[in-house]
Amino acid sequence: MSNAMTKMINTLKSYQYRHFNIRLLVWVCALTVLGILVIASATDSDTYEQKQIFGFTVGLMITFFATFISYKFILKFFWLIYIVNLILLIWVRVAGSYHMGATRWIALGSVELQPSEFTKIFIILFFAYFLNKYKDKLNTFPVIAGSVVLFAIPLYLVFRQPDLSTSIIIAMIFCGIMYVAGLSYKFIGGVLAITIPIVIVFLYLIMQPDQQILQGYQVKRITSFFDKSAADDRRQQENSVMAIGSGGLHGKGLNNNTTTSLKNGNYLSEPQTDFIFCIVGEELGFIGSAGVIILLFLIVIECFYIAAHAPDLAGRIIAAGYGIMIAMQSFVNIGVVTMLLPNTGLPLPFVSYGLSSLLSLFSGLGVVLNVSLQRREIE
């Protein structure tokens, strides 16, 4: 028997299978199945449903294999992970597919993938190793500056696609894992002292008529949120809120043919993607909406539970970073759909239609589940 095979068997034997977090897997599968049902109801074609089922099936396979590959082994290739991420993002810049005002996709045969979705997972994995390696020097200027530079490169490539919403989520993930890694409160205070004025200046600059920072449609989405007279730019969000409100307690039912349905009246464009939550609200009502939010909350809680029992800082960053990603993305998506935040394109984890989003989420899930297999007992 080869040494590689022996090491693999010994690794599999070392796992604490009694600590496998079956709850996390159940919550994710339940939410994904619910998402498939809602996607099928949101569209007249079964193409989206079939692709989402395909993504769910492939995603489960990826999760299964990733669960039994030690995350410590995966993190040995941290520079390769970083370089592959940059190659994919540069590929988008050079030969990406252009849709709806942005170049975010690369064509692989008949399938189009969105690399920025995988960037979220790549960043978590890369910095899990990087910050664990320099944990004793984390609060020194070279490590912090190096982390910011290494993070800023993929962030810039995503921002220039342009993809403002994903850039914001990636920034939130980075801030979260830096905090989990043990960043000093002095540095956090200093960052806030610098960031807040920058954000104020940034908002002022993008409001100027000749600004070159954001695309025109991005500016309209932000300004229309505060300008009630901008009816055309607010219509999608306003219709979304009406759809959710019309669902009442129990909703109108999946695949309904009610004439009062905003979905059936085609008042919602592309509802199977970023605005899938308004379909949940209209067709499953308050109960269905609350169910989706509860499942998302349970997924985040399980991730933080795994992080609390992780055997090292790298495992803690992976599990907590994944939980932060789910929490922040869910908050922004639901905030947009309910018109609490300006309109920005961002999928609802495990629910919105999107092969790239689903595959990246299930890839990360497998690594998080592997962390649970190497649990550290807390005294």
Q: How would you describe this structure to a colleague?
A:
There is one protein chain. With 379 residues, this protein is mainly alpha-helical. It has one domain. Helix content is 68%, strand content 3%. It contains 14 helices and three strands. The chain has a three-stranded antiparallel β-sheet with strand order 1-2-3, with helices on one face. Helix 2 packs antiparallel against helix 3 and helix 12 runs antiparallel to helix 13. It is globular and about 65 Å long. It starts with a helix and ends in a 6-residue tail after the last helix. The relative contact order is 0.16. The mean pLDDT is 87.
Can you describe this structure in just a few lines?
By secondary structure, the chain is mainly alpha-helical. The protein has one domain (18-373).
Radius of gyration: 21 Å
User: Could you give the order of the helices and strands?
Assistant: HHHHHEEEHHHHHHHHH
The class by helix and strand makeup works out as mainly alpha
Helix content percent band:
55-70%
Show the helix and strand layout:
Layout: H1 3-14, H2 22-42, H3 47-67, H4 71-74, H5 78-95, E1 97-99, E2 102-108, E3 111-113, H6 115-133, H7 141-159, H8 164-181, H9 185-206, H10 216-226, H11 231-246, H12 276-308, H13 313-337, H14 355-373
Antiparallel strand pairs: 1-2, 2-3
Helix pairs in contact: 2-3, 2-12, 3-14, 5-6, 5-7, 6-7, 6-8, 6-13, 6-14, 7-8, 8-13, 11-12, 12-13, 13-14
